Amino acid sequence: MACRLADSVFLFKRVQIVRAVAVPVARPPAESSSVDNAEYRKQLSESYGFRQIGEPLPEDVTLKDIMNSLPKKVFEIDDLKAWKSVLISVTSYALGLFMIAKAPWYLLPLAWAWTGTAITGFFVIGHDCAHKSFARNKLLEDVVGTLAFLPLIYPYEPWRFKHDQHHAKTNMLSADTAWHPVWKEEIESSSLLRKALMYGYGPLRPWMSIAHWLGWHFDLSKFRSNELKRVKISLACVFAFMAIGWPLIIYKTGIVGWIKFWLVPWLGYHFWAQLNGTVHCDYPNWIEILCHDINVHIPHHISSRIPSYNLRAAHKSLQENWGKYLNEATWNWRLMKTIMTICHVYDKEQNYLAFDELGYKDAKPITFLKQVMPDYA
């Protein structure tokens, strides 16, 4: 999800940002023994819903060492597997639309959940295309990526440029385009902004990627001059889809149909948009299949050249060779509660502070979530 509870399993010492185990509590005393630290990590794992919080990497381990440990086959493009993923997404999305059309009102939430998850697969396909790990033909990748992003009204090239920046600056404060913790100075600058952030990083956290989508990909001033031509072409494609596709949906099904068939599944996609985090998190099998294993995301941050259909094999290799350093979780309510009620304000010493811990009177949304959200892993 949106909060990067444990920054990349491989945060190298040359990047002095958040500690390798970025959890919202203070660091154990420096004089603690290795046994104490292991016990400390175990306690944190249980407390915050992780399966494991990995050990810090040794000082002499480099990214090259880790990449060299991966089987060469995980970097190979397989056309059959690539187009199989397209087939899975197209058929599962079509099935979802059929279920929405036929389901009685009380089954619509299940149909929406399926369809929103299925359409997330389109994003993953476009994601592979942007990383040039989908096909050997680069023009084909750009065409497929653009088409895959259109139902999500995501402009392909603007996303690609900003996502490349995310990979170059992963987990770097103020530089990573995908990870933006709240600064204390920011929330104290305006009471209106603070209230908005309370809801955005609290009850509305699963849909905060909508703000990221809108804020980073449509503003031409955020792109270099040599990027603008491709950015404008992508924006034109998105606006054309909206200008043609939306009226057709409304003409055939009405405004209610537009909400049923497009808007709610689109919101479902944004719920899953942050599956691609830097913590390995297991989900139910049907979700992983429809999302093409993008939750198995640590290998992707080792090398973006690994196609989504090879992520699981790459992760298995990482477990075998570097297992004790991995941050891993299985989706559970305690993990969700940590994300939505604790991971708020960046703090240099404690990593994250919850809004209500800072004494703000308008932190009622966070207090409410802490009271009502389940707390079992």
TrEMBL record:
Keywords: Lipid metabolism, Membrane, Oxidoreductase, Transmembrane, Transmembrane helix
Annotated GO biological process: lipid metabolic process
Spans through the membrane: 82-100, 106-127, 233-251
Gene Ontology molecular function: oxidoreductase activity
InterPro entries: FA_desaturase_dom, Fatty_acid_desaturase
Subcellular location, record wording: Membrane
The UniProt record lists the keyword Iron: no
A Pfam family it matches: FA_desaturase
UniProt domain Fatty acid desaturase: residue ranges: 104-326
Main location: membrane
Family designation: Belongs to the fatty acid desaturase type 1 family.
Protein name (record): Fatty acid desaturase domain-containing protein
Taxonomy of the source species: Eukaryota, Viridiplantae, Streptophyta, Embryophyta, Tracheophyta
